[in-house]
């Protein structure tokens, strides 16, 4: 009953702040909800100076929600499926070379650059952390968050090519980032001496390739079932089963659920809509997942803002976080520029387009969830705190200004 009460409060706050935003602020919904969540959390913290019991009560209630499990185990499957349903496969095919390069090589480059930069930065602040944990941080913070990215881009006027690359890369580098994170975490837990190149290759193939393969199977089964009937209520139920049953199956056989949901969503939103659904089903299915996406996004961004209450901050963490946020922007540009030069599609993009992709590559709930999923160790608190600072900086600073940046850099 307590969890129901907490989610009732979250939904009520999200509804109220969404109303305020639509009526007055007119910001992208994710930005407004996160901003309001941060303000509420700040209010709780300030009130705590006068009533310690009040802050402790809020922390106790929020701790009932395992944010990492809630996002990675529940929300992520719905949000990735819903987001990928709106992406055109023909558009993805046109940009396949750049999307794959950015999502794989780019994420790896960013992981290394951010990891080593944090290692030396923390040493300069006399708070050294082993390099393997800095690389682990690089892996969790490098993927751009498709949930945040797609919500912000709805209000911008980007060219189709750049928008497809930003959305496509964010959908796939999320899954790749989780695989890299899991691999480095395995190395940190077992010791580098017990984890060879062959082990890394096997884990990557199992997680990434296995996830894509499972997504194809889930998408194909859903497509066949939908094609054999014409009943929109049942077809919506089938799509829910694809997400919930499919994601649970991926988790149980240790393959990448996020990648599976992206592939299944792409198949449902393209081949499924074209060949397996009537016009009525297309309409109802599309609206169902659009509303589901909006509601879950509202809960997620509100919860991210409120989660600040349970994080321990001090001034040095805030300073390190802001410096790291700036380093991540540079690392993001480098991780896009190098693949663009290596695979000879830089002329197609141009430096301005790469900078738009850099500034529009937001970090969000996935990074926080991965940070919170770290096992308890002496370094977890500082890594979680830095992650929160970076995500707040990314969504509130980059998110609010990305539309102006795009207008300034596009003719």
UniProtKB/TrEMBL annotation:
Membrane topology: Multi-pass membrane protein
Domain Cation/H+ exchanger transmembrane residues, every copy: 13-405
GO cellular component term of the entry, any: plasma membrane
Residues that span the membrane, as ranges: 6-24, 31-50, 70-87, 99-122, 128-150, 200-223, 295-313, 319-342, 354-376, 382-402
Source superkingdom: Bacteria
A biological-process GO annotation: sodium ion import across plasma membrane
Keywords: Antiport, Cell membrane, Ion transport, Membrane, Sodium, Sodium transport, Transmembrane, Transmembrane helix, Transport
Places the protein is found: Cell membrane
GO function terms (MF aspect): potassium:proton antiporter activity; sodium:proton antiporter activity
InterPro entries per the UniProt record, alphabetical: Cation/H_exchanger_CPA1, Cation/H_exchanger_TM
UniProt key word Signal: no
PANTHER family given in the database record: NA(+)_H(+) ANTIPORTER NHAS2, SODIUM/HYDROGEN EXCHANGER
Protein family membership: Belongs to the monovalent cation:proton antiporter 1 (CPA1) transporter (TC 2.A.36) family.
Name of the protein this chain belongs to: Sodium/proton antiporter, CPA1 family
Organism: Chryseobacterium wanjuense
């Amino acid at each position: 009953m307590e969890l129901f009460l907490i989610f009732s409060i979250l939904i009520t706050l999200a509804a109220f702040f969404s109303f305020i935003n639509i009526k007055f602020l007119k910001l992208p919904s994710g930005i407004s909800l996160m901003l309001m969540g941060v303000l509420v959390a700040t209010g709780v913290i300030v009130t705590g100076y006068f009533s310690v019991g009040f802050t402790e009560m809020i922390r106790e209630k929020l701790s009932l929600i395992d944010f990492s499990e809630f996002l990675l185990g529940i929300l992520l499957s719905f949000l990735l499926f819903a987001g990928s349903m709106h992406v055109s496969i023909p558009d993805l095919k046109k940009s396949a070379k750049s999307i794959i390069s950015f999502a794989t090589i780019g994420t790896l480059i960013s992981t290394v650059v951010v990891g080593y930069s944090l290692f030396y930065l923390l040493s300069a602040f006399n708070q050294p952390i082993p390099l393997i944990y800095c690389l682990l941080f690089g892996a969790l913070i490098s993927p751009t968050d498709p949930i945040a990215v797609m919500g912000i881009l709805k209000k911008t006027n980007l060219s189709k090519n750049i928008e497809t690359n930003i959305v496509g890369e964010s959908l796939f580098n999320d899954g790749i980032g989780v695989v890299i994170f899991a691999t480095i975490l395995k190395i940190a837990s077992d010791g580098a001496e017990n984890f060879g190149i062959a082990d890394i290759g096997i884990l990557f193939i199992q997680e990434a390739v296995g996830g894509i393969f499972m997504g194809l199977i889930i998408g194909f089964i859903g497509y066949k079932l939908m094609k054999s009937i014409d009943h929109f209520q049942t077809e919506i139920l089938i799509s829910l089963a694809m997400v919930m049953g499919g994601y649970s199956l991926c988790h149980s056989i240790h393959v990448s659920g996020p990648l599976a949901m992206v592939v299944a969503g792409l198949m449902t939103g393209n081949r499924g809509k074209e060949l397996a659904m009537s016009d009525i089903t297309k309409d109802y299915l599309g609206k169902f997942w659009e509303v589901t996406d909006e509601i879950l996004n509202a809960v997620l961004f509100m919860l991210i803002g409120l989660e600040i209450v349970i994080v321990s901050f001090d001034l040095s963490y805030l300073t390190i976080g802001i410096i790291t946020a700036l380093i991540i922007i540079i690392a993001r540009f480098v991780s896009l520029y190098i693949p663009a030069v290596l695979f000879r599609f830089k002329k197609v993009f141009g430096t301005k387009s790469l900078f738009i992709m850099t500034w529009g590559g937001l970090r969000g709930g996935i990074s926080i969830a991965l940070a919170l999923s770290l096992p308890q160790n002496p370094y977890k608190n500082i890594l979680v705190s830095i992650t929160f600072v970076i995500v707040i900086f990314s969504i509130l600073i980059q998110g609010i200004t990305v539309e102006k940046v795009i207008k300034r850099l596009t003719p």
